[in-house]
Specification:
Distance between the termini: 31 Å
Protein name: FAD dependent oxidoreductase domain-containing protein
Radius of gyration: 24 Å
Number of domains: 2
Organism: Postia placenta MAD-698-R-SB12
Shape: elongated
Oligomer: single chain
InterPro entries: FAD-dep_OxRdtase, FAD/NAD-bd_sf
Length: about 180
């Protein structure tokens, strides 16, 4: 390359969602191929991208999140990227339901070999503070529990209410997405 057009070097520090997104958009810009620019992403973890906060997050993408100014750009962009790059297969992109569940826990079966607490002492996770001990437990869950919420026992459910309409909440696998 001639001295008239020196190679520009951009170094991005951190392979989390911000660093990886910055590298992606720099490299996918229409002028990048002819720009003489080299982009280097540095990540401290020997295990690769998204080992910090990005790798531990739940991958929630929601139209109802905040700040709205960011959401109004990021949610449709997540949809576009998933469609353009086969996000369903590559990073687990999927629309999900989101709701508020209220209910009771139950003790694990004795034969599971799992204990809770010091010395394997089992403890109930049911919250009973302030409840009248004579109040009978509800045996039927109210309608509204989503059909695909199969890991929740209906008989332990007191209430469920959706937090957003269909298509307003999605999820990605953070490590796969940043990789």
């Amino acid at each position: 390359m001639s001295s008239e057009h020196p190679v520009r070097q951009i170094v991005i520090i951190g392979g989390g969602i911000i660093g990886c997104t910055t590298a992606y958009y720099l490299c996918s810009h229409p002028a990048f191929a002819t720009s003489g620019t080299k982009v280097t992403l540095l990540e401290a973890s020997v295990y690769g991208a998204a080992q910090g906060a990005s790798g531990k997050a739940g991958g929630l993408v929601a139209k109802w999140a905040y700040p709205k100014e960011l959401v109004n750009v990021s949610f449709p962009e997540h949809v576009r990227l998933a469609q353009e790059h086969n996000g369903t297969q590559r990073w687990g992109w999927r629309f999900v339901g989101c709701g508020s569940w209220e209910g009771r826990g139950e003790l694990a079966r004795e034969d599971t070999g799992t204990g809770v607490g010091k010395g394997g002492e089992r403890k109930s996770l049911e919250k009973t503070n302030g409840l009248d001990a004579s109040t009978p437990a509800k045996t039927q869950a109210p309608t509204g529990l989503p059909d695909d919420l199969t890991w929740v026992k209906a008989e332990l459910t007191d209430a469920y209410s959706p937090m957003a309409p269909a298509g307003a909440t999605a999820q990605v696998h953070p490590r796969l997405f940043t990789t």
